[in-house]
Amino acid sequence: MSRYKRPYEFIDLSLLKRIEKQLENRKELERSKIFKTCLICGERKSLFHFSVDRRSSDGRVGACKICKNRQSLKYYYEHKEEILIRVEEYRRTHKIDRSIYFQNYQRDHKKQLKKIAKAWYKENKKMIKKRNLKYYEDNKEHCQAIRKLWIEGHKEEIKKYNREYQKLKKGG
Ligand SMILES: [Zn+2]
Asked: Within a domain: residue 145?
C-alpha cells in the first residue's frame, strides 16, 4: 500500500535548525540587554544593580551599586577632614545649628548608618571585643563603679526583667 507523505514530513530540517538558531541569538541579545558587566569588580549583573545615568549609551553607570557605595565610602574616609571642614563651613555660612544638622543627617541616613555600623562590627568583632576587654582591664574600678551606678539607676527595670524572665522559664 502506497503511503502519502504527511505535511510535516516536507519540512526541511535545516530550516528548523536555522529558526532555532535565530531564536537563540535573539534570546542572547535580550539577555545582554538586561545584563551589564561592572567596570570595577568585573561581575556580570542585571541592570537593576546599576544606577541610572542618562548620559551613558545604555542609560546606566559603569560600576555596580556595591562598587559605587564602596567607592564613596573610601572617598569619605580618605577625605574625611576636608568633608568635615566643608560641612562646618556650610553650617557656619548658613547658620545651621550643628546638633540639628546631625540629628537630620542621622534621621535621613538611619538605615545606611545602621548597615555600615553592623558591617563594621562584623568585620572587626574580635578586635572590638579585645579592645573592650583591654579597656575594662585597664579601667576596672571605673567600669565597676559605672556598672554599680547603672544598676542603682535601673533597679525597677531589672526587677521587672527578672520577673518576666522567671515567668518565661516557668511557662516554657
Ligand atoms: Zn561592581
From this structure: yes
Distance 104 CA to ligand 1 centre (A): 30
In this prediction, residue 113 has a pLDDT band, given cuts at 50, 70 and 90, of confident
For residues 143 and 136, is the Cβ–Cβ distance under 8 A?
yes
Q: Give the tens place of pLDDT for each residue, 31-81.
A: 666 888 999 999 999 888 999 988 888 888 999 999 998 888 888 888 888
Q: Is residue 135 part of a domain?
A: yes
- How many degrees, rounded to 5, is the angle at CA 91 between CA 87 and CA 92? 120
Ligand 1 centroid – CA 78 distance (Å): 20
Query: 55: CA distance to ligand 1 center in Å?
Result: 19
Q: Is residue 164 part of a domain?
A: yes
